[in-house]
Amino acid sequence: MVTVLNVVLQNHPGSLAEVLEIMARAEINVDAIEAEAQGDFGTVRLLTSKPKLAGELLRQDGYEVVEAEALQLMLPNKYGELARLAKKLADSNVNVVSLFGTSPNGPNDGRLVLRVNDTKAARKVLGISD
């Protein structure tokens, strides 16, 4: 289990840089990131080495931050694997709230950060132990 920080920020040049500079000044590594703007605002999702401290620092600078539990898992980076994962969750009535990922070590593996509506059920269906 990992903690993802969901940060609301204004949509203007430099807003993402400001958030990342706060992390850098505090020597907090960003392990994964996903950002999207919609209209005047945007959301950045951060997986950091120190989520509690990162959240506190961002709040001190006036950012709205929501901490959320997420699952982190490795999945073969092959066609159909993500579809199989999504189907397993759907068949168990687990809803995907957010998902972001990458293939840090090339085409043989993918790293996913997955938020769902029922973490316990997702862990069970995906075979993730505590």
Record the SSE blueprint.
Layout: E1 2-10, H1 15-25, E2 30-38, E3 41-48, H2 51-60, E4 64-75, H3 81-91, E5 96-102, E6 110-116, H4 119-126
Antiparallel strand pairs: 1-3, 1-4, 2-3, 4-6, 5-6
For the record, give the distance between the C-alpha atoms at the N and C termini, rounded to a whole number.
8 Å
Q: Identify the CATH architecture of the largest domain.
A: 2-Layer Sandwich
Q: Using DSSP, what is the number of strands?
A: 6
pLDDT < 50 runs, ≥5 residues:
none
Radius of gyration: 16 Å
Strand arrangement across the biggest beta sheet: 2-3-1-4-6-5
Q: What class would the helix/strand composition place it in?
A: alpha+beta
What average pLDDT do the residues reach? Answer: 92
Total count of helical runs of at least 4 residues: 4
Query: Approximately how much helix is present in the residues?
Result: 25-40%
Strand content: 35-45%
Shape: elongated
The domain tally reads 2
Q: Order of SSEs, N→C?
A: EHEEHEHEEH
> Major beta sheet, specifics?
6 strands, antiparallel
In short, what is this structure?
It contains four helices and six strands; from the N terminus they run βαββαβαββα.
